[in-house]
TrEMBL record:
Membrane topology listed for this record: Multi-pass membrane protein
Subcellular location: Mitochondrion inner membrane
Function according to Swiss-Prot or TrEMBL: Catalyzes cyanide-resistant oxygen consumption. May increase respiration when the cytochrome respiratory pathway is restricted, or in response to low temperatures.
UniProt-annotated binding residues for Fe cation 2: E129, E180, E235, H238
One biological process term in Gene Ontology: alternative respiration
One GO CC term, this protein: respiratory chain complex
Cofactor list: Fe cation
Matching Pfam families: AOX
InterPro entries: AOX (IPR002680), AOX_sf (IPR038659)
Protein name: Alternative oxidase
EC number of this enzyme: 1.-.-.-
Spans traversing the lipid bilayer: 82-103
């Protein structure tokens, strides 16, 4: 396990202080699929399916559950393989929000027009994904092979997504929505593997300190299972936000834009967190 110094400044409020999830909110998260109803949706969904298939094939991804007998031994997931997968996926997941936010920011100042509240949500998503990555990096040290894969993947994905976002932001948000559907499925499978007793090294492991501070995890809710539930709730949120943004025109107001903090105060803002009861 990596040794890091976790300084106290992480506990301080930032611009993107995470809303506090209730236990019910993290337990109620469900896998979901938005039916592809247009050719744009089908393009987005097919791209995600091809990427997922390629990623699964290359990383030998497979879980014990629900078909443990038919999964070959080489395709079962250990704690280390889950962490490797999380680290790779989260390093990629931090790209779309930053690209979309950056391009909308540049467009706003270039065209001298307002953005209608999208940029903050998109950058917050990128920040949240980076916190997922940093959390898992507390639990595993990436190999040089992994670092090279991340480098290559970021170069390809950043270039491709930037170009695609310039052409069709709607398709890109739909693509991210479908990608996040897969993320929810992945974390749900990891949780099921844990519940089925296939990840014994995590049974007594506590979430890293930075995760406890970031999600403001309550004292009786700081185990690895809880951490996976918190991350999965974030992914479900990204899924719903991006599918919604994919339905909107570019000049529509962002329905997820934060309420002014001065007017309603932070506690109320947290209660108005984007994951609804
Ligand atoms: Fe993530
Ligand atoms: Fe995500």
């Amino acid at each position: 396990m990596r040794q890091h110094s976790t300084s106290t400044h992480l506990a301080q409020k930032s611009s993107w202080t995470h809303p506090i999830y209730t236990k019910k909110q993290i337990l109620d998260v469900q896998t979901a699929h938005r039916k592809a109803s247009s050719w744009q949706d089908r393009v987005a969904l097919s791209t995600v399916k091809v990427l997922r298939w390629g990623m699964d094939f290359v990383t030998g991804y497979g879980t014990y559950s629900p078909i443990s007998i038919s999964v070959p031994k080489t395709r079962t997931m250990t704690e280390q393989k889950w962490l490797t997968r999380f680290i790779f996926l989260e390093s990629v997941a931090g790209v779309p929000g930053m690209v979309a936010g950056m391009l909308r920011h540049l467009k706003s100042i270039r065209m001298m027009r307002r953005d209608h509240g999208w940029i903050e949500t998109l950058l917050e998503e990128a920040y949240n994904e980076r916190m997922h990555l940093l959390t898992f990096l507390k639990l595993a040290e990436p190999t040089w092979t992994m670092r090279c894969m991340v480098l290559g993947a970021q170069w390809v994905f950043f270039s491709g997504f930037s170009l695609a976002y310039l052409i069709s932001p709607q398709i890109c948000h739909r693509f991210v929505g479908y990608l996040e559907e897969e993320a929810v499925i992945t974390y749900s499978k990891a949780i099921k593997d844990f519940d089925d007793g296939h990840l014994p090294l995590w049974e007594k492991l506590e979430a890293p300190e930075m995760a406890i501070k970031y999600w403001q995890m309550p004292e009786n809710n700081r185990c690895m299972r809880s951490l996976l539930l918190y991350v999965r709730a974030d992914e479900a949120n990204h899924r719903d936000v991006n599918h919604t943004l994919g339905n909107l025109n570019q000049t529509d107001p962002n329905p997820f834009a934060a309420k002014p903090k001065i007017e309603i105060g932070l506690p109320q803002l947290q209660q108005n967190g984007r994951v609804k009861d």
